[in-house]
Each structure stands twice: as C-alpha cells, then as structure tokens.
UniProtKB/TrEMBL annotation:
InterPro entries: Bact_Lucif_Oxidored (IPR050766), LLM_FMN-dep_put (IPR023934), Luciferase-like_dom (IPR011251), Luciferase-like_sf (IPR036661)
GO cellular component entries: cytosol
Keyword flag Oxidoreductase: yes
Name recorded for this polypeptide: 5,10-methylene tetrahydromethanopterin reductase
Domain Luciferase-like intervals: 1-294
GO terms, molecular function: monooxygenase activity; oxidoreductase activity, acting on paired donors, with incorporation or reduction of molecular oxygen
Keywords of this entry: Monooxygenase, Oxidoreductase
Originating organism: Streptomyces cellostaticus
Length: 358
C-alpha cells in the first residue's frame, strides 16, 4: 500500500488567533508539507486544483515540478485535476512533461471539482459536467497512447493528425485515478478503462463508501480487467492527533467548529462517529484506519488530509511526524497481514513499465 498526504490548499484564518496566512505563506507551507512527507517515509503527496479564493493551488504541475526537484522518492499526484474545465490536450502535455522531470514519479486524479462557478470561467456549462468528464478523458486517454490522433467530439475543436508532446516517459502513460464522492458514472468510467478509483470519503459514512467501491469493483471485473479484488482503490482520510486523545479533541475543536467545509454543522463528536475523521491518539488513528478494509476491501492507496481549516504549519508538521513515525509503520504491517497474493500493489511507473514489456 501507499500512504501519503493530500491537500486542498485552502487559505483559512486560524480561529485561535484570527490570523490569515498570505497566499505566499500557504503555497510555501504546502511545499514544506511535501518535503516533510518524504522525510518521514510517506509515499505520496497530492495537491488539489482550484481557481477561486480561498484556495491557492491553481497550477498543480508547477508546484509538483518544484517539489520533484527537491525530492527523490515521493510520488507526486493530484487530489483533483479538473477534467471538465481543463483542455485534455494541455493535461496530456503538462503531465507528460512532469513525468520526464520527475523520472516517472507522477500520477494524477481526475475529478469534476465541487465549485460551480469554475465552469463558465473556462467556457463550460456545469450541466454538462458528467458528459465533459467522459468525453475529455476519452481524448486524454488516446493522446497518451497514440502518436497521431484524429478526434472529433462535442466540447472542443476537432484534431487532425495531432501529436501531443512530449510523449509519455518510456511510452507509459501516467497512472490515472478517477476521484468521485457520489457519481456512479465516474466509478463506471474508472472501471471501463481499468484505471484506479479514489473515493474521497472524508465527509461520508461507511455504507456510502462501500456501495461506491463495490460498484467500481464489480464493473472493473465486468469490463475484463481482473477480479473485483484486483481493482485499484484509493481512499481519503482525515486525522488530528495528540498523545492524549482528550488533548487532541480540545485542540482541534475550534478548527473543526469554524472550518468552511463543515463548521457550524454537526458536532465534532457526531462527525467523528459518522465519518472517517479521527481526532485522538495515534493508536485510535491506527484502529479506525484499519477498519476501512472492512468496507473497502484490500486497497492500494491511503491519503490523509491534515493541513486544512487554518491549522498552523508547525502543528501540521508535528502531525506528519506522528503519522510517519508512529502510525504508518503499523498500518503497513497490519494491512499486509492476510492480504491475498493476487491483490495488486499500488501502481508505479516502474511497475507499469514492466507490465508493458511482459
């Protein structure tokens, strides 16, 4: 399994001090988080893509290219690449370029995004969101696998004899995860292509996650890519830790209560009971995360959201230290127990290249 960090890059006031970081501070903090992730032995850093305040990561490949130059092992990914409002030709070019710069340490997660106004900013109609996701990815998939592409669709100008450059590193396209919270069409899309399915389950109860993952697994097998158990699944998670669970709850509560995404709604206790959010000791994080396998099966990637809601960078780096030193080593060991031999490992460029030559 791969373990890592994903960020949405929000610029949120710290409710305990009232101070809001500058955009520069937040961008630099995201880089520091990625470097800390590699330092403590995590596998993946993934950034979101947003084009509206209060978020800063509008250019994921720029950030990931900078991080690639300062890391050696970390897989660089996105927690959303907007397949609906980005031109698939530009996605193909940008991520192939990043592949070369990062020596293959690149994959990406396709998503529609959750900010309605973005669509008209980029000349699109949110009512066509699913259709845009399906058509744009069909083109992107071809651009990475065919040297010369002829294309005609509904949402962009036709292509005639077009070659996307640079070509993917070693002739192997970046691995794609399709991220979805609630759209069965996206689970079907991931299954049709034999790609990965990432369920960002941080706001959802286990039963909903189970249904989405089971749908993807069954359709993956239907399309002939392997057994349901061989499908490639990733999950999100959310944690805040202190040695003493009461200290964790006391420290995190003002951030939870004022967070833009769920503040002023359910109580912290209600939310932790109903969703994957864990606020407590490292052992509690271990126990709850291991429970994900009960409803998602053996899966390949676990990413944690840790830097949101105005938490100061110092606190986030302390969290990542605990995650890397105390939590993930136990999770690696425990998730490996009883894992069937035919369950695939997390996709990497090296593995995909070897499979292409088999």
């Amino acid at each position: 399994m791969q373990f890592g960090i994903f960020t949405v890059g929000d610029v949120t006031p710290d409710p305990t001090t009232g101070r809001t970081p500058t955009e520069r501070e937040r961008i630099k903090a995201m880089v520091a988080i990625a470097l800390k992730a590699e330092e403590v032995g995590l596998d993946v850093f993934a950034t979101g893509e947003h084009h509206n305040p209060p978020f800063v990561p509008s250019s994921p490949t720029t950030m990931l290219g900078y991080i690639a130059a300062r890391t050696e092992k970390l897989v660089l990914s996105t927690s959303t690449t907007l397949i609906t409002t980005n031109d698939p030709v530009k996605i193909a070019e940008d991520f192939a370029m990043l592949q070369h710069l990062a020596d293959g340490r690149v994959d990406l997660m396709m998503g529609r995004g959750n900010t309605g106004p973005v669509y008209p900013w980029f000349g699109q109609d949110i009512r066509q969101g699913i259709n845009l996701a399906l058509e744009n990815y069909a083109l992107l998939h071809r651009l990475w696998r065919e040297d010369v592409v002829d294309w005609e669709g509904k949402f962009r100008t036709p292509l005639q004899g077009f070659t996307s450059t640079p070509r993917p590193l070693d002739g192997v396209a970046p691995f794609v995860w399709h991220g979805s919270i609630r759209s069965p069409e996206i689970a079907e899309q991931a299954a049709y292509y034999g790609d990965g399915f990432f369920h960002n389950n941080i706001f959802w109860p286990a039963d909903h996650t189970r249904r989405m993952v089971e749908l993807y697994r069954s359709r993956y097998a239907h399309h002939g890519h392997g057994t349901p158990e061989q499908a490639i699944v990733g999950l999100g998670g959310q944690v805040f830790m202190r040695r003493n669970s009461q200290d964790a709850v006391r420290e995190f509560r003002p951030y939870f209560d004022n967070a833009p995404v769920y503040g002023h709604g359910p109580s912290l206790e209600e939310f932790t009971a109903q969703t994957p959010l864990t606020v407590g000791s490292p052992q509690q994080v271990i126990e709850k995360t291991l429970g994900f396998r009960e409803y998602a099966g053996d899966y390949q990637r676990q990413l944690f959201l840790m830097d949101h809601a105005g938490l100061p960078l110092k606190t986030v780096l302390e969290q990542i230290d605990m995650l890397g030193e105390e939590v993930v080593p136990v999770l690696r060991k425990e998730f490996a127990k009883g894992r069937p031999a035919d369950v695939p490992e997390a996709p990497t460029h090296t593995g995909l290249l070897a499979a292409s030559k088999a």
